Amino acid sequence: MADKAYSHPSTRDLLRRREIRFTCPERADQKAGRAAKGSRGGRPPAFDRVEYAGRNVVERCTNRLKHFRYLATRYAKRAAYFRSELIIAAIVLWLR
Question: How far is C-alpha 17 from the chain's CA centre?
Answer without folding.
Answer: 19
